[in-house]
Specification:
Distance between the termini: 12 Å
Largest sheet: 6 strands, antiparallel
CATH class of the largest domain: Alpha Beta
Strand content: 15-25%
């Protein structure tokens, strides 16, 4: 394999490289090489400058002003005519954001700015009537300053701007390529499009005009090209990696995983030459419990009426055993709160549920169901992934040991999600993956203003004190230390009420070739290749 080319596989394929449609990992991994935003996240999940060299907000936290770098150029492309490229200006920021608010773009990321930027709702309505979008909350103050007014303070606003939906594109490319823009992306990132043969390969070439340099003055990126293959069969993908044809393996087929990785998360001896990257993901797996007795499923469920029973279910689960023997190390027991370890706002001092079957039985007795007597059987619905079912079967047995009968039901995942959103289930398996690296994004699942189907609060959990804390966490312009104190208090109250059965925090694992250096990994599972090098292989 070439020492100047980085190759990885996308078994799920890529349908579009338009930032407005970058709502799934495959598009985000490739798009990260092509695009930049005003700001970006570093390896510690902190927001740092990117196209914007600096920013400031007014004392209210509603007016933000970003000063742009003057050396950021778009990729060399025919859409710019004979000039082939040009520098990024404030107009490009305005265009990119307005395009996201245009309903004709059909972006699943419209929500990012919809209720946050002043005038966004009016802008959306303009586009519904076929008018050209404009937004009073987005203003160009010359070529190098963009000003954004929010409807109210929103503490994670910079995190929103680091999302793929907020990547910056030129108007010329969208107008030149039309519907084909999604297959001919033009950005400012470290690599530019060379060619894309759907379901065969995507090839990106080094951007010689990339604005970033390393500490010694060398222009990034180091690699000359990135190649993405689209082998669908994960076992074949593994063999390609073993032959040295792939530089990283982002997921191990379950039938292979136990032969490669020990249950304690270390590599088996036969694979010790490779590098195993692993980090706790910014996500949590849980069973949701519908608390809304106005819904038919909630009215009929004993779980909706008794926090004691919900607590008993949490105490009855041996999460360490599940992580070790079912997940084979690809998880961290959810012994804390809603916020995953490694994410800003996580605290080990927030104590959740640990395995204590005696306490579970005591709580059932206190709830009026000694030994589970009188407690109707409950149905746990889930998708039909093998891992999900294996975890469900283990927990079914653990709950049986305290006298609780649970029937497992599997349905196709799209149908499952639809039923969850429509409040048709009393108990279900799901997960939450952070849209951005801020605890507000997780606590929104417990704010009553976000009841499903129009929001992510699928349990219909409601507590006045949580709503108040969420409002403070989301909008108060205070120090991170103070925000996190509110986060931890909210977590403790949520743990007390138990709208969830907490399972585990997933772990991201990557197998990397021994000659690859400079490949970072973090809980958001990004693929950042601009500082990757490949040393001469000794194999």
């Amino acid at each position: 394999m070439s020492e100047t080319t980085f190759t990885y596989n996308e078994p799920n394929g890529i349908t579009s490289l338009d930032p407005a449609r970058a709502g799934y990992q495959a598009a985000i991994w490739a798009g990260t090489q092509i695009y930049n935003g005003l700001v970006e996240r570093d390896s510690n999940s902190l927001i740092v400058p990117c196209i914007a060299e600096s920013w400031q907000s007014d004392p209210t936290g509603t007016r933000w002003e970003f000063r742009l770098r003057r050396d950021v150029a778009f990729h060399d492309d025919a859409c710019f005519g004979s000039a082939r490229t040009r520098l990024v200006t404030a107009k490009d920021i305005e265009y990119s954001f307005l395009r996201l608010l245009d309903v004709r773009t059909k972006s699943p990321g419209l929500w990012v700015f919809q209720k946050r930027i002043k005038g966004a709702e009016s802008c959306i309505e303009q586009t519904r009537r076929g008018l050209r979008p404009s937004c009073e909350g987005i203003r160009c103050m010359g070529d190098s300053i963009i000003q954004i007014d929010l409807t109210q303070p929103f503490a994670p606003f910079l995190q929103l701007l680091s999302m793929p939906y907020a990547w910056i594109i030129p108007r010329e490319a969208v107008e030149y390529y039309g519907e084909e823009f999604s297959r001919h992306p033009v950005g400012t990132g470290p690599f530019r499009m060379d060619h894309w043969t759907p379901d065969i390969e995507l090839v990106l070439q080094r951007n010689p005009r990339y604005f970033k340099i390393d500490k010694t003055g060398n222009r990034l990126p180091y690699m000359e090209s990135v190649v993405v293959t689209f082998v669908r069969d994960t076992k074949t993908e593994f063999m390609e990696f073993r032959k040295g044809k792939l530089d990283v393996l982002s997921a191990l087929d379950p039938s292979i995983a136990t032969a490669v990785v020990n249950s304690d998360g270390t590599l088996q001896r036969a694979f010790a030459a490779y590098s195993l990257q692993q980090v706790c993901a910014e996500s949590i797996e849980y069973y949701g419990i519908l608390l809304d007795t106005a819904c038919e499923s909630g009215k009929a469920s004993p779980l909706s009426r008794s926090a004691l029973v919900r607590q008993a279910l949490n105490y009855a689960i041996d999460r360490e055993r599940i992580v070790r023997y079912v997940l084979h190390g690809k998880g961290v027991p959810a012994h804390h709160g809603v916020i995953p370890p490694g994410m800003p706002g996580f605290s080990p001092e927030v104590h959740g549920y640990r395995y204590n079957p005696d306490r579970a039985r005591m709580l059932l007795t206190k709830a009026g169901y000694p030994g589970g007597a009188g407690l109707p059987a409950v149905t746990l619905q889930m998708g039909n992934s093998a891992r999900t079912v294996s975890v469900g079967e283990a927990i079914q047995q653990m709950w049986k040991e305290i006298g609780v009968t649970v029937n497992l039901k599997q349905v196709d995942f799209p149908q499952h999600l639809e039923m969850v959103s429509a409040s048709k289930l009393a108990l279900w398996r799901t997960s939450w993956i952070g849209d951005y690296s801020d605890p507000e994004n997780f606590l929104a699942l417990f704010a009553s203003e976000f009841f499903s189907p129009s929001g992510p609060n699928t349990t219909h959990y409601k507590r006045t004190s949580i709503d108040s804390l969420y409002g403070l966490i989301a909008s108060s312009p205070v120090s991170s230390e103070q925000r996190y104190r509110w986060v931890h208090e909210a977590e403790r109250q949520i743990l007390e009420d138990c709208p969830w059965v907490f399972l585990y925090y997933p772990v991201i694992q990557r197998l990397v070739q021994p000659n690859v250096t400079g490949l970072p990994i973090d809980g958001s599972d990004r693929l950042v290749l601009e500082r990757v090098r490949k040393i001469r292989s000794t194999r």
